[in-house]
Amino acid sequence: MICVSKKKSYLKSQNLKIVGQGKLNGFVEISGAKNSALVLLAASLLTNEKIVLQNVPHLTDIEKMGNILKNLGVNLKEKNNTLEIDSKNISIKELPNELVNGLRASFFCIGPLLSKFGEAKVPMPGGCNIGSRPIDEHIDGLKALGAEILIEKGIVKANIKSKKSRLIGTHIKLKCPSVGATETLIMAASLAEGRTTIENAAREPEVQDLCQMLNKMGAKIYDSGKEKIIIDGVNKLGGCIHKVIPDRIEAGTFLIAAAATSSSITISPVIPNHLEAVTNKLRKSGSKITIKGNSITINPRELKAVNINTAPFPGFPTDLQAPFTALMTIANGESKITETIFENRMNHVHLLNKMGANIKLDKNVAFIKGVKTIKGMDLIASDLRSSAALIIAGITAKGSSRIYGLEHLDRGYENFETKLKILGIKITRNLNKKTVTNKEFKTSSDPADIPRCKAA
What we know:
The protein is α+β, with helices and mostly antiparallel strands. It is built from 14 helices and 25 strands. Helix 1 runs parallel beside helix 2, helix 1 packs parallel to helix 7 and helix 12 packs across helix 13 (406-412). The longest helix is centred in the middle third of the chain and has 13 residues, at 248-260.
């Protein structure tokens, strides 16, 4: 997406300058999973005992979540990539908008607070502007567990109706396998009275990681990773030490970058079956993939066009749709990319076309005719995954590019440009000393092509 307001400026904004047509070579250490760490931080509210979280990535989203916990009275101690979390002195109060704005994961706090204390006040969630992500499934599930919920002026106010001040186990069937709703309801049900079953539950690795940590804390959760999860509520939960799983989205992004530049790299640590949908598509597109223990090596050959449809796990992840679209712009042949999860996650297509790609967009379906080369440009990313896509495009492009909107990138990729630099890419993070206006960027002449800007 390109913002076109003439008044909008990016004073002293950071950007990445990329010298194109580079090659990657070497080893990439994969960080802990952002989407897992965020919900695990929320789950720490369920106990009065200490939680030690290892392999926590340094990201702005994690920092925001930490500040939310601190606002509730949680004591956080950080050393390297380890967080020690002490929630025994929590005070229940409404979370301020300035802390939760732009962080959708802040809404995860509602389940633990409601289940443990009988009440919660949480503002409606924010996040990347990639489409509608309603909280209906969260709300309906909490109501089924016995909560009274009122939404006033953007604040979700929840209370437990039961005289015992405990949620009551029940049967919940989700309309869609929402990751967020599944996680919220698992946390809420862990301290509920009786058994809760969640049908059509999300099967994502991050959901499984949450269940593993909760079980270490004393929860009784069965069949995580399956479509039906069973939770037998317990009276209280204790502390534990838990290591966050590797970030499958970061891992997939580096594999895609290697394929786009015909480069051989090895990534580790990873859990290979978390990446099966991605590695299968990379194989079909011409790369040789070698899996050995917790590492994956990619050796690209001739890049061929393949089709993808995003889908809930174990399908192709929506978070890698944008990077894979960037890859397909230079593949031999024609490909079709279908986004089925979010209705507004094709903002990168307009930018890739401006770099010389040949993509026709019909709603959430991108029809791509591969081109031999794309050209470097100065562009502004609109969301987290589009920023990764533009960086991949910049690496493959002829000439130099500057990618702005790094506030999105820093939400989900730890030391992204540093890792690329180690692999041999000429990339530097710069701070502008002058005001950069949108007049200096290529803009679309069709207003319908330009979605609204929304900071994450």
